[in-house]
């Protein structure tokens, strides 16, 4: 295609340079920092694995934080996939009202997460919130939402889902429209029911989309920070203290860069590992 | 062609004009000031007055909400020449000073000037024998009570005489009985006792200090044997009981404005609260009948109250030292302190303001707070690691009030704080 072998590299160069400067370099710095200890107003010193050792051996807050992060992701990512797929299946037809609903469901993901968090914080306020006044009108008792250790993580999942599910729905819609009509026509002729078509044709042929959605959603949600920072500050009783927030506190309140970067390095490893596994599991079996 | 030439000429004139304007305003020093996120209209009143008195200085005031103030400064101070001036929480002075973020201010103040402030405030603004931050306000705490609720159930009012102050057990008994009586009457949403700052060391350390607990080692960098000592754990256990055993205090009311709202709307019989509530309660809840009783203490201990508040400091890297010091002197001076009290209700750190406003401060309520400031006040621990100390203890108190075992939670806090203190040793 290209006469010179270096031509493709030239086209890729701008992207690679930016990636190196803004992604790989900071990751490298973080890794380097995570093996060091920085006393106040002195040069940092190499301490080997000490920061990691402290996290795993002496730091209940880190363990709790790790657990919270895993729990949050175990709930929100499958929900994202299931709800986004369900919405896409519902809206993958040509009726006059469909475009309206597609836009409606997509709209929240066009709003900044910060704004979403503030708005839902007001709506779910345990004392003056809109949701609790509605519950009271309907005869239910008021719920504490973000101020209760047992409900705050669930509330966070709800806000995250509300904001992002429409976005993932769009990918599923695109995936659905890529499946050739002829496959369904053949199934019709063979007498397959609608459910059989979904299970035997739609889902298998969407496995690439699912892989993409799952991996993107995982790497996005493992890095959740804004809603925690705005709504719960990691509380109550550490119930929403995700790793990103713990790392932030370590870096900018406790001025402990070693611990902060060790946490983010662990997070990076987790994300890479989980993404790798889910890509493997969702490997496309069919080409079309 | 002629038209084009005209446009060009006009642009040229405009550019020259702009440059002239630009250089004219450049002769005024612009100070960048990072300030607490108090209501803008109140702060601006002070700033405008300063700018009128000092036409050669422009102030760019940046109001940062409390929850983001410390991290904002943490990001900006290590490298920047700005902000030139910034607000400093009293006990954090040592932290900034140890890291070289604050300009020592001794040379700009005479002993006579310094004598105007409460000695405890000057102490809180000093580190290693030097003065780094000038007191902007001070504070105290005491027991607020709702007279109507007490009368409704016929419970005797808490005393206003410091010598007869209630013990914590008295408070707990009153909270239980009043809450029960009110619940029996059908007021099922009223609580016995609120702690305004439910998890902040500022309001909670005095409980432990009342029992004689040391809250930090003498070098300011040791907490083992202090915040997990038997006396500290005893105080923390009492605090735990309020929420988990006696159930007279609501969990999760972790915003002082919400606590005030509860108390102001008659949803709590008592509130351990700071002096700033006097002004805010009377403004927001003019109907509320409340009184103030001296800070409770433990029976086998002594009365201890919190104190200290905001200070103002100058960035050691500022390029406008003279203007910055002038601004600090204005903001912490008599006029601005008096005006700020009238605008916001903070108690002044300057004694001359109290003398100047007898009609405000000669009341029973202020009498209680002034007594505490003079006799029982203890400043928060002076340690360069105060930010870390505060955050970790705060999370710990938060856990305890939700039911965590006090001893275990405090042992964990020791491990975490000790680690963060390493970098200062």
Detailed description of the structure:
The complex is a heterodimer of chains A (288) and B (425). Chain A is an all-alpha fold. Chain A has one domain (58-281): MetI-like fold. In chain A, 70% of the residues lie in helices and 1% in strands. Chain A has 13 helices and 2 strands; from the N terminus they run αββαααααααααααα. Chain A has helices at residues 6-33, 50-58, 60-91, 98-106, 113-123, 130-137, 152-178, 181-189, 194-205, 207-221, 226-232, 243-252, 257-281; strands spanning 36-37, 45-46. Chain B is α/β, with parallel strands linked by helices and 425 residues long. A 5-stranded mixed sheet of chain B has the order 2-1-3-12-6. Chain B has a 4-stranded mixed sheet with strand order 8-9-7-10, sandwiched between helices. In chain B, strands 4-5 form a two-stranded antiparallel sheet. Chain B starts with a helix and ends with a helix.
Architecture blueprint of SSEs:
The complex is a heterodimer of chains A (288) and B (425).
Chain A: H1 6-33, E1 36-37, E2 45-46, H2 50-58, H3 60-91, H4 98-106, H5 113-123, H6 130-137, H7 152-178, H8 181-189, H9 194-205, H10 207-221, H11 226-232, H12 243-252, H13 257-281
Antiparallel strand pairs in A: 1-2
Helix pairs in contact in A: 1-13, 2-13, 3-7, 3-10, 4-7, 5-11, 7-10, 10-13, 12-13
Chain B: H1 2-26, E1 29-36, H2 40-53, E2 57-64, H3 66-76, E3 85-89, H4 93-98, H5 111-114, H6 119-124, E4 126-127, E5 130-131, E6 133-135, E7 141-146, H7 147-153, H8 168-184, E8 191-195, H9 201-210, H10 230-244, H11 256-264, E9 268-274, H12 277-284, E10 290-293, E11 305-306, E12 310-314, H13 321-331, H14 334-344, H15 351-356, H16 358-361, H17 364-375, E13 377-378, H18 386-401, H19 406-421
Parallel strand pairs in B: 1-2, 1-3, 8-9, 11-13
Antiparallel strand pairs in B: 3-12, 4-5, 6-12, 7-9, 7-10
Helix pairs in contact in B: 18-19
């Amino acid at each position: 295609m290209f006469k010179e072998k270096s031509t493709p590299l030239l086209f890729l160069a701008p992207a690679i340079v930016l990636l190196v400067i803004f992604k790989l370099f900071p990751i490298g710095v973080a890794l380097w920092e995570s093996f060091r200890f920085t006393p106040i107003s002195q040069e940092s010193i190499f301490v080997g694995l000490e920061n990691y050792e402290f996290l795993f051996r002496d730091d209940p807050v880190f363990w709790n934080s790790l657990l919270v992060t895993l729990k949050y992701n175990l709930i929100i990512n499958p929900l994202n996939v299931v709800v986004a797929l369900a919405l896409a299946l519902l809206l993958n037809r040509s009726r006059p009202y469909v475009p309206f609903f597609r836009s409606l469901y997509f709209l929240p993901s066009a709003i900044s997460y910060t704004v979403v968090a503030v708005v839902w914080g007001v709506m779910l306020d345990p004392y003056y919130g809109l949701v609790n006044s509605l519950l009271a009108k309907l005869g239910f008792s008021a719920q504490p939402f973000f101020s209760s250790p047992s409900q705050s993580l669930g509330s966070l999942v709800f806000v995250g889902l509300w904001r992002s599910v429409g976005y993932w729905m769009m990918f599923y819609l695109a995936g659905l429209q890529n499946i050739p009509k002829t496959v369904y026509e053949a199934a019709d002729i063979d007498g397959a029911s609608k459910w059989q078509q979904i299970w035997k044709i739609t889902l298998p042929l969407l496995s690439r989309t699912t892989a993409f959605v799952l991996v993107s959603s995982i790497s996005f949600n493992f890095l959740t920070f804004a809603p925690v920072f705005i709504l719960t500050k990691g509380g109550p009783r550490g119930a929403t203290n995700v790793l990103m927030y713990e790392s932030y506190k370590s870096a900018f309140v406790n001025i402990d860069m070693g611990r902060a970067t060790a946490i983010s390095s662990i997070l990076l490893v987790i994300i890479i590992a989980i993404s790798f596994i889910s890509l493997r599991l969702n490997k496309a079996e069919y080409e079309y | 062609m002629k038209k084009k030439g005209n446009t060009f000429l006009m642009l040229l004139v405009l550019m020259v004009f702009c440059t002239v304007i630009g250089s004219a305003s450049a002769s005024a020093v612009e100070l960048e000031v990072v300030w607490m996120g108090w209501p803008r209209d109140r702060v601006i009143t002070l700033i405008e007055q300063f700018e009128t008195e000092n036409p050669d200085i422009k102030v760019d005031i940046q109001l940062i909400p409390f929850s983001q103030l410390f991290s904002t400064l943490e990001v900006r101070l290590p490298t920047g020449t700005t902000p030139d001036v910034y607000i400093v929480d009293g006990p954090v002075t040592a932290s900034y000073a140890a890291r070289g973020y604050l300009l020592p201010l001794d040379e700009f103040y005479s002993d006579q000037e310094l004598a105007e402030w409460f000695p405890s405030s000057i102490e809180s603004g000093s580190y290693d024998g030097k003065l780094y931050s000038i007191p902007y306000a001070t504070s105290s705490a005491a027991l607020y009570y709702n007279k109507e609720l007490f009368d409704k159930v016929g419970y005797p009012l808490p005393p206003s005489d410091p010598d007869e102050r209630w013990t914590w057990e008295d408070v707990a008994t009153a909270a239980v009985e009043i809450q029960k009586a009110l619940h029996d009457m059908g007021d099922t949403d009223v609580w016995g006792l609120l702690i305004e700052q439910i998890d902040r060391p500022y309001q909670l350390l005095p409980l432990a200090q009342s029992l004689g607990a040391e809250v930090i080692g003498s070098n300011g960098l040791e907490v083992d044997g202090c915040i997990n000592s038997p006396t500290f754990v005893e105080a923390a256990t009492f605090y735990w009981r309020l929420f988990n055993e006696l159930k007279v205090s609501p969990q999760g009311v972790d915003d002082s404005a919400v606590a005030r709202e509860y108390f102001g709307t008659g949803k709590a019989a008592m509130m351990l609260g700071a002096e700033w509530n006097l002004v805010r309660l009377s403004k927001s809840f003019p109907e509320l009948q409340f009184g103030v009783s001296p800070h409770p203490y433990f029976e086998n201990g002594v009365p201890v109250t919190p104190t200290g508040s905001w200070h103002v400091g100058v960035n050691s890297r500022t390029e406008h030292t003279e203007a910055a010091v002038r601004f600090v002197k204005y903001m912490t001076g008599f006029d601005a302190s008096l005006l700020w009290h009238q605008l916001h209700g903070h108690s002044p750190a300057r004694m001359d303001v109290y003398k100047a406003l007898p009609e405000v401060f000669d009341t029973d309520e202020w009498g209680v707070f002034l007594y505490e400031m003079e006799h029982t006040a203890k400043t928060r621990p002076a340690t360069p690691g105060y930010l870390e100390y505060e955050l970790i203890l705060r999370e710990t108190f938060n856990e305890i009030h939700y039911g965590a075992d006090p001893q275990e939670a405090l042992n964990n806090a020791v491990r975490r704080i000790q680690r963060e203190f390493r970098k200062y040793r």
